[in-house]
TrEMBL record:
This is Glyoxylase-like metal-dependent hydrolase (Beta-lactamase superfamily II). SUPFAM superfamilies: Metallo-hydrolase/oxidoreductase. It comes from the Bacteria. It holds the Pfam family Lactamase_B. It comes from Streptomyces griseomycini. CDD domains: metallo-hydrolase-like_MBL-fold. Residues 26-220 form the Metallo-beta-lactamase domain. GO terms for molecular function: hydrolase activity. InterPro entries: Metallo-B-lactamas, NDM-1-like, RibonucZ/Hydroxyglut_hydro.
């Protein structure tokens, strides 16, 4: 790496794994560094924010981002994606069709409704490409051709949206990027595209993936532990009247 995590303003979560909290919407972006490839988890809220993430990742690793995983299709997580030309883009199955036609207009309108400049929203949506690789179940990415660093992409939804993807980075500790299935800085947001009846089960799946000792990186807020995820699971079940 050309700079350290601390110098870059990113938080190191585990060896070769970091995250940053972006301004305005406090959205998390994650970075996983392999010997042969670099994975970014979520791309920010605009082309400008995506370009910032691209430059910071390059400064940290000395290489370009080769893989991009989108945890779900909300504007603050995906509208920077077009800044990563040449990257292999992954999403949960269904994200490719969800970004066709009316879905793109809904994404633009949601961004503007939440305060993104209308021109910035339109430019980002116009440039946004659908994920080339969709995950049904689980998929392993090799970030080291020698097999030293593998990352698991898991389609754990629906829950926060109809298409929720989690990213598990094995190691000591294991790290789980949760997207907005988990939020620490406020109550989890359940918009019109949420599937409340399945959300607690999605959190059960996250806990199965990571286990008790993992570090769980929420879509918004500070890194949490398994006890926090379990408590949020129980609170969501009570909130939506979902039994085990």
């Amino acid at each position: 790496m050309t700079v350290t995590w601390e110098e870059s303003g990113w938080e190191q979560v585990a060896p070769g794994v970091g995250r940053c909290r972006l301004p305005v919407w406090d959205c998390t972006a994650g970075l996983v560094v392999g010997t042969d490839a670099v994975l970014l988890v979520d791309a920010g809220s605009s082309l400008a924010e995506g370009a910032r993430l691209r430059a910071e990742a390059q400064e940290l690793t000395g290489r370009r981002v080769t893989h991009l995983a989108l945890t779900h299709l909300h504007f603050d997580h995906v509208l920077g994606a077009a800044a990563f030309a040449g990257a292999e883009v992954f999403g949960a199955v269904g994200t490719d069709t969800a970004l066709a036609g009316r879905g793109r207009e809904e994404l633009r309108a949601d961004a503007v409704r939440h305060g993104l400049d209308a021109r910035a929203a339109e430019e980002a949506v116009d440039a946004l490409v659908r994920p080339r690789h969709t995950v049904c179940g689980e998929r392993t990415l090799d970030l080291d051709l020698g097999g030293g660093r593998q990352v698991l992409l898991a389609n754990v939804g629906p829950g926060h949206t109809a298409h929720d993807l989690a990213v598990l980075v094995p190691g000591d500790p294991e790290v789980v990027f949760c997207g907005d299935l988990v939020e620490e800085s406020g109550e989890p947001q359940a918009g019109p595209d949420a599937v409340p009846s399945h959300w607690p089960a999605a959190l059960d799946r996250l806990l199965e993936l990571g286990g008790e000792d993992a570090r769980y990186v929420p879509g918004h807020g500070a890194v949490v532990d398994a006890a926090f995820v379990r408590a949020q699971r129980d609170a969501l079940a009570a909130r939506f009247g979902v039994s085990r």
